[in-house]
Design brief:
There is one protein chain. The chain is an all-alpha fold and 251 residues long. It has one domain. Helix content is 78%, strand content 0%. It is built from eleven helices and no strands. α1 crosses α3 and α1 packs parallel to α10. It is globular and about 55 Å long. The chain starts with a helix and ends with a helix.
Length: 251
């Protein structure tokens, strides 16, 4: 392995730890990991597929950690995850056959919308912990399907979209919303990973390096999230959304 490759793998590992941390609390970590993977000379399609293994591992790690902390609403998993997975399967098939030029405008437009919501009405998408959850509705199911569609298509920033639906329509606070977000991300990422494997768009060695790194980051993220108050978490989410918008614009 050359020195350049070693440096590239070091960058992948560092990006993975950071991505696992911020994905557990907010989202946008793939905007760090995708460029790191492309340092190895991968086309965007292969980087997109390779990144999915780490999304699966960090999501599983985060779900288990939130469950240990008693912050996972297990009764809501099936009704929340169902429409999200259906959307993700559709989105993954579309992503596998779509030209790369389509990815950036969809990514940037979605992130800007979420950033504006967080700036203008932060409690609209991230309520305080004392607000009761709402029952599943047709609107929430449609929103979850749309979040899954976006996540299967791009992945980067899907955590923001899921948090906006879980907080805005079902009124989960940032901690419990993040726990359910990770369940959804885990399940639809498994489906998406299978599709990218089918299309031979996963490079397994960098995928494994990234997977280990994001698990470390996700454990650190859960420890921070369960101790921080709602205002701090909302601020973290907004900063992550804004930074993701800038990264997507400059990419």
């Amino acid at each position: 392995m050359s020195e350049t490759e070693l440096l590239s793998y070091a960058a992948i590992f560092g990006a993975g730890v950071a991505a696992g941390f911020i994905n557990t609390m907010a989202g946008g970590g793939s905007l760090l990991t995708l460029p790191a993977l492309m340092l190895l000379g991968m086309p965007a399609t292969d980087a997109n597929g390779t990144n999915r293994l780490s999304v699966v591992t960090q999501s599983l790690s985060g779900v288990l950690a939130f469950h240990r902390e008693g912050r996972l609403d297990t009764k809501a998993i099936l009704p929340v995850a169902g429409p999200t997975i259906v959307g993700a399967v559709v989105g993954s098939w579309v992503a596998a056959i779509s030209p790369e030029e389509v990815l950036k405008p969809v990514l940037l437009g979605t992130l800007v919308l979420v950033a504006l919501l967080m700036l203008v009405k932060p409690k609209l998408v991230s309520p305080d912990g004392d607000e009761p959850q709402r029952p599943m509705s047709a609107g929430a199911m449609l929103g979850l399907f749309g979040a899954g569609l976006y996540g299967g298509f791009i992945q980067a920033g899907v955590g923001f979209v899921l948090l906006a639906v879980l907080g805005g329509l079902l009124r989960y606070d940032a901690v419990r919303g993040n726990a359910l977000k990770l369940v959804c991300t885990l399940l639809f990422s498994l489906a998406a990973l299978a599709i990218f494997v089918w299309h031979d768009q996963v490079r397994w060695i960098p995928a494994a390096v990234l997977a280990v790194a994001t698990v470390i980051g996700s454990q650190l993220g859960v420890r921070f999230a369960v101790k921080a108050n709602a205002t701090v978490l909302r601020a973290v989410i907004f900063v992550c959304v804004a930074a993701s918008c800038v990264a997507a614009l400059l990419k």
